[in-house]
Each structure stands twice: as C-alpha cells, then as structure tokens.
Design goal:
Helix content is 34%, strand content 28%. By secondary structure, it is α/β, with parallel strands linked by helices. Bound molecules: flavin-adenine dinucleotide.
Length: 412
Amino acid sequence: MSTVIVVGSGVIGLSVCEALIQDGHGIILIDENVPGSQTSFGNAGLIADYANSPLANMDTLRKLPSLLSNKHSGVSLDIRDTHKLMHYGMKFVQAALSDNFARNQETLSKTLSLSLQAHIDQIDRLHLKDLVLENGCLHLYKNSPETEADLTEIVAQKKKFDIDCEFVSKETVHSLEPNVNLDGVTGGIFYPKTRSLLSPEKHAEALFRRLNLHSGFKYIDEAVLAFEQDGQSVWVKTNSQQIKGDELVLCAGIGTNQLLDTYGVQIPVVSERGYHIELDATELQINRPIGWQGKYFFATPMSDAIRLAGTTEFADRARKTRHQHHQLLEVWSKALFTQDAKTRSKWMGVRHSSPDGIPVISRLPSMQRVSVCFGHGHLGLTMAAFSGQFIKEMIRGNADKDLGKAYSLERF
Ligand SMILES: Cc1cc2nc3c(=O)[nH]c(=O)nc-3n(C[C@H](O)[C@H](O)[C@H](O)COP(=O)(O)OP(=O)(O)OC[C@H]3O[C@@H](n4cnc5c(N)ncnc54)[C@H](O)[C@@H]3O)c2cc1C
C-alpha cells in the first residue's frame, strides 16, 4: 500500500488518517502544534445535522450591512483585512443567488446526512460513545421577529430534506430546559438526532491515540514549509527534513492557503474567527446544546463546563483577539439563563470558510497526487469523519462523481 502524508492534525486531518489506515495505507502525519489543539479544540461540539442552509443566501445579504455596523450583533470585520475578502465576497454573492443557493443547499443536505452517519460509524468503530451526548438540540427563538407560524414553516422546510425536527412551545422549552429564561421566547425547534461532543479536545486526543496503535503510522512534530510532486512521488519540506510519500493531503485548516500560495493556487477560503467562553457547570445545568437563533451562538453542555461558542469575525488569523466578542457572549449568557455562572475560560479560533458553505475536498489540477481538504467553515467537526471517508474513496478512485464536482476547487 502507498504512503500518504497528511499535513494538519486537527479533527479533519486525524479523521483522514483514521479512514486511510482502514485501507492499509502507511501514514505520516505532520503538524507543528499538538493534535487537536487549534480550531478543533474550541468548537461548540455539535454534529449539526440540521445546518443545511448555507450562509450565502439572500437573507444574509439583506442583513449583512446592519449586522456589520451593529457592534452588538456578534458579526464583525477587521477593516484592515477587507482586501483579502474580495474574491470570497464576490463568490459569496454569487452563491447567494437563488439557483445557486438551491444547488448548494442540496449538496450540503446530502453531505450532512452522510456526515451524521460517518460520525456515528466512527464513534462506534473507535468505541468513543462516552464522549457523545445524544439528547438532540434546541434552537431557541427569543426576542426575535419570528412568529410561531414562521417556526412551523422552518420545520416544514427542514423536513423536505429529511431533517428530523419539531416545533416546541414556550412551555415545552421550559420542560426541556428549566434554566432557560423564558422572557421574550416565542418557542423553539427541537432536533432530536443532533449529537454533541462532551469534549472536542478528548475526542481529538482519542483519535490520535488510536492512530498511534498502528505500526504504519508516524507523527512528525514540525511545520511544513513547502511541497512538490515529482513524477509518482510527493515531497514535503520541513525545517529539518524532506519527506517522501505517494500521496499528500493538506488538512492544515486556514494554514492550507499559505501552503498553496507558493504555487499561485488561490482558493477563496477565508479566516472567519469564532469565540467561546466556558461557564462553571457546577452553578448551571443544561441538558443539551441550546442555540440562540439570531445571536449566532450555542451553549453546549461539556464534560466539565457549559461552553458558549459562536460569533463571527472576518479577520486575519494573526490579528489580536477581539474581546468584545467574549463580552457579548457573557452578556447573552446572563440573558439566556435564569442563573448566573462564573466564566472560567475564554478562547478564540479560526474557521476556514468557503463562500458557498461547501468544503473543498479536491485534488490539485496541477499536481494530481496532492489533495486539499479544508473550507469546512462552521461544520468541520460534523463533516470530519465523512471528509476522511471521502478522501479514502478519492484515493481509491471511487469517490462519488457529483459530490466530487461539488467539492472541487475548480468550482471557483
Ligand atoms: C467558535 C466555533 C464553534 C464551532 N462549532 C462547531 C460545531 O459545533 N460543529 C462543527 O461541526 N464545527 C464547528 N466549528 C468548526 C470546526 O471547529 C472546524 O471546522 C474544525 O475544527 C476544523 O478542523 P481542522 O482540522 O480543519 O482545523 P484545525 O483544528 O485548525 O487543524 C489544522 C491543523 O493544521 C496545522 N497546520 C497549519 N499549517 C500547518 C503547516 N504549515 N505545517 C504543519 N501543520 C500546519 C495546525 O497546527 C492545526 O493543528 C466551530 C468553530 C468555531 C471557531
């Protein structure tokens, strides 16, 4: 079997390795940071089967100017990075046009359904059920313009894509989540099949531990500086060595752009930073992830804290943390719950977001032995196990052709 070099040990890279090991490939995983310690560390932990509506839609376009100009919205942009968003912005507008949106929604729905199953299979295969909460999730409509009729319509639309969900009244919200402050609540939508991780960190650690049990697996703790394809081989250069393989998969999150830049390959995947705060779980309990619609965040019960994660900041990954996002999460947590709880930690991480909401899982046209697997935006944890399986099928030469086209970097 061949040797595959994988760059990036976030949840995507780890899942790619795990899938390829099933096919007996030798794996060399390279990362300059501890596995799972970057974006994969701090997410909201949702396996988000419900999220089939790409952000690039007419409604977002209509709301965007007011969201960006309102410093309490949880959506912001660093003006110094506007020039880096041009290509992304153009493609975002294009993706929002109704025909394109419908096509992207179709692709995303199919991807999410496959992703949920791939996640379940991965958890079962690796015996990681202890890390998963299967209590569904609640989308809460609080202080928002939507009426009960609007929520019923959202449920009907989701059901068209076979997404399991139901409208829940204010009273049912209370019985599901007694610690939610019901002021201004219209109702909610309950998604019974949504799962969540009790610790994204422990999940990544467990994946990495399993990989280390295989004799064909090797981990190199260095930054990749460059790569090339030479005939039937690929070469990866780090500070101290040149590593040879048969295939290369770049799962370096937002760092993928930098690696591709050297070859003039520019993909409009941008840095969309997100934030979390963690609340002391001894002071407040919730039974499942609760998403406050309109505020762009989820409160997820984790093994030892309640994590409020979300918000959006279009800014280069190296910019200083914008603490205003943490402050907003703190204000919202006080409004969301009937009880206060102390903030025990704060975090910021970088989503790698594509304009159409569809990941980029594709071979490089100019180097057929090199693939990229990034652009998962808000759904990288959800799609990780599936992305691994898709890369495995690509290397076998069996990947679904329609999905392959939808994920291809040539769509840009
Ligand atoms: C606030 C927030 C909430 C989120 N909530 C959810 C959620 O509920 N559900 C969901 O599905 N998704 C969620 N996401 C998205 C999800 O976290 C990401 O899509 C996912 O973690 C991406 O994983 P990754 O492996 O691609 O990236 P990362 O975890 O960032 O891993 C990339 C790795 O590449 C390495 N790397 C980069 N460049 C190089 C180089 N040159 N050489 C060597 N290594 C390199 C980095 O060190 C890093 O370890 C959320 C994101 C945020 C920010």
